[in-house]
Amino acid sequence: MRQDKLSPAPGSKKNRKRVGRGNSSGHGTYSGRGSKGQKSRSGYKMSRGFEGGQLSLIRRLPRKRGFTNIFRTEYSVVNINELNMFEAGSEVTPERLVAARLVKSLRHPIKILAEGDINHPLLVKANRFSAAAKAKIEAAGGKVEEIGHAAKAR
Question: What strands lie across the sheet with 143-146, from one edge to the other?
Fold first, then answer.
């Protein structure tokens, strides 16, 4: 095979469209732009989202701007001062939190936060704990146990 004998595959090379070079070229007179109007003028550039002067969709729906993370995990939050209602030394599970009406349902994972103080030792089982909540529960003589997330119910 010689380099001077190489040629591109048939149909792979195409001449560029030369507009405004006479009617015999097939692209004369209006140069493929049609007749009159904003789009036929030189220097025309339509901005993104322009709808011909009609109020554009992005300006009609300001509430729709922005971003919503569809993978965000929403937690049911319980503060440790609310755990004082359980007797000393007892086990606090997500089911007991629902029964005590501290959490509406087990649909969302439960997170324990450090708002307030805890007076007595408890074994607390939840999906997540803030670092300060963990420290306060252990300082009161209690234990903390993180349980895995249940499958998300949609």
Answer: 91-92, 123-126, 143-146
